[in-house]
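Hi support team,

I've been running sequence recovery on a batch of backbones for a student project. Most finish fine, but this one hangs at about 90% for roughly twenty minutes before it completes. I'm not sure whether the input is malformed or the queue is just slow. I've pasted the structure tokens below so you can try to reproduce it. Let me know if you need the job ID as well.

Thanks,
M.K.
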């Protein structure tokens, strides 16, 4: 039987970026985690898709096996696609279509050097993540975790004029580190709660948006930290933002300040933060992400003034389906020979 009949002959063509994408009948896609059913069903229709139905995170060795055969890899935040994994990739691997916005789990430089395109899923988890950031601000300022634990433990003795007092939001200053898409969505919510918006970015945002949010730009992060009542971390994790909130910078915050983080744990020196919370040098923290996920510093677990969530910023059914849709669009566009809409370039970070 000839090779063509066995489906072994691939017709290659060049897409707009000059990459050569093997154009066999169906693109071989390896998905590392269980995705929503509707997304998996559509992927199976469109591509030669290998799923992970029991959702066990892949080991580094399993990832290496995957990149040896996949034309497209669909990883998530729990997969470390580092230089070691990428160095084992076969020449057929042309696209990493990540399920999520953050791309700090992928070695972008090595991917570029090996001619592998990387895409993500921006925009569709903005509101969900901003909701969780706002929830954490409310939860920490108004001591929701403590109150809930008290009632559940059967230890609530009844209303008292000076018990469970938190802090009013209205009139306070919120400093957003990274007033991008999610930061702005948080700022819109926060304004509804009477918070004034301050922000630090590498670059000042468009004056129209600044005007709409009545936001104050702080070129110096240190100066902003010294004056805020609450801080929200909303910038991506890159080499430049690793431990941006270092022990030194955390010391600049006033003791009544609270911090929330829905971005990446690595942006805050978690040990230094924990130490300050233990000593009462900071009023509280709301953390949806951790430096060594899924491990959580055990000393944080014992603290009353923290609210801890299991990385659920984008965890809505709607959001996860939209993320999957974006993954499909990126793969389909790429395998049809076009530039996928959500290409990630190192320079963008
Ligand atoms: C995602 C996230 O759920 O998109 C991101 O960057 O942090 C999460 O909200 C996760 O990345 C899925 O891979």
């Amino acid at each position: 039987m000839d090779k063509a009949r066995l489906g072994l002959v691939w017709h290659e063509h060049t897409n707009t970026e000059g990459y050569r994408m093997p154009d066999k009948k169906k693109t071989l896609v390896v998905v590392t985690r269980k995705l929503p059913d509707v997304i998996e069903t559509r992927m199976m229709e469109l591509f030669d898709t290998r799923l992970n139905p029991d959702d066990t995170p892949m080991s580094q060795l399993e990832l290496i096996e995957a990149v040896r055969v996949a034309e497209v890899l669909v990883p998530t935040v729990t997969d470390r696609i580092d230089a070691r994994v990428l160095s084992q990739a076969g020449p057929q691997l042309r696209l990493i279509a990540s399920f999520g916005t953050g791309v700090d789990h992928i070695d972008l430089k090595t991917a570029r050097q090996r001619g592998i395109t990387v895409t993500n899923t921006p925009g569709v988890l903005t509101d969900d993540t901003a909701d969780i950031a706002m929830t954490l601000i409310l939860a920490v300022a108004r001591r929701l975790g403590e109150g809930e634990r008290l009632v559940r433990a059967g230890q609530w003795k009844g209303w008292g004029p000076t018990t469970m007092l938190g802090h009013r939001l209205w009139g306070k200053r919120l400093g957003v580190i990274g007033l991008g898409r999610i930061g702005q969505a948080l700022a819109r919510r926060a304004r509804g709660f009477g918070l004034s918006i301050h922000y630090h970015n590498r670059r000042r945002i468009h004056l129209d948006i600044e005007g709409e949010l009545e936001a104050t730009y702080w070129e110096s992060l240190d100066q902003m930290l010294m004056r805020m009542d609450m801080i929200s971390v909303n910038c991506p994790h890159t080499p430049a933002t690793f431990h941006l909130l270092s022990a030194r910078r955390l010391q600049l915050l006033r003791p009544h300040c609270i911090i929330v983080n829905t971005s990446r744990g690595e942006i805050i020196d978690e040990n230094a933060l924990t130490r300050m919370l233990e000593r009462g040098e900071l009023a509280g923290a709301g953390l949806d992400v951790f430096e060594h996920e899924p491990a959580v510093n055990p000393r944080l677990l014992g603290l009353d003034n923290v609210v801890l969530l299991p990385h659920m910023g984008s965890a809505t059914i709607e959001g996860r389906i939209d993320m999957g849709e974006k993954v499909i669009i990126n793969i389909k566009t790429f395998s049809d020979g076009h530039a996928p809409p959500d290409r990630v370039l190192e320079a963008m970070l």
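--
Follow-up from support: It reproduced on our side and the slowdown came from queue contention, not your input. DSSP finds 13 helices and 14 strands in the chain. No action needed from you.
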